[in-house]
Specification:
It contains eleven helices and no strands. By secondary structure, it is an all-alpha fold.
Length: about 190
């Protein structure tokens, strides 16, 4: 195996190990030393790839944030607000179901204190709101949108649903909570 391949595997293992530990121990309860100990390497080895836990958090969340941005990019090409709404809901739900195991990270107070993470999440959320409702969404549209943008309570209550069952439940919920397109916007 080439050195570059081995380095990428080690970096990926740091991210995977940290994701699991952040979910189990919490962000604040996980140190670079704990990540290293869990991997069976020195702290210097982890530090070589990531100087801070915040950098690891960014590596963990970057993929899902890119995927959500890609859903929004594709949705911009969908004609009709209702069709666009359903496209965004389906894409968002697919991400939620795929990321189900790491959703506790999003409610971790230590994670939420990370300014770059919080700012990027807020930016993505506002982009989605504007994409679906324009520059002047009604209070009802905003309320529905922000209510379904955090589906963690549902995920916690129904851990045994299969991915397909969960998709159906979440899709139906989102379509009931978010106001339908105004007749002029369909």
């Amino acid at each position: 195996m080439k050195r570059a391949e081995q380095a990428e595997q080690t970096r990926a293992k740091v991210v995977t190990t940290a994701r699991r530990l952040f979910s189990e121990q919490g962000y604040d309860g996980t140190s670079l030393q704990l990540i290293a100990d869990t991997m069976g390497v020195t702290k210097a080895n982890v530090y070589y790839y990531f100087k801070t836990k915040a950098e690891i958090l960014e590596a963990i969340t970057a993929g899902s944030q890119r995927e959500l941005a890609a859903v929004f990019d594709a949705a911009e090409k969908v004609r009709g607000r209702q069709a666009r709404l359903e496209f965004v809901i389906d894409g968002f739900i697919d991400l939620v179901v795929q990321q189900r195991a790491v959703m506790p990270l999003n409610e971790d107070p230590g994670v939420r204190r990370q300014k770059r993470f919080a700012a990027h999440a807020e930016e993505l959320g506002l982009r989605g709101l504007r994409l679906l409702f324009g520059d002047e969404p009604t209070v009802e549209e905003q309320a529905g949108y922000f209510l379904v943008s955090d589906l963690r309570p549902v995920l916690r209550r129904f851990p045994d649903l299969s991915p397909d069952e969960l998709r159906e439940v979440l899709r139906n919920l989102c379509l009931r909570v978010i106001p339908p397109a105004r007749k002029a916007d369909r």
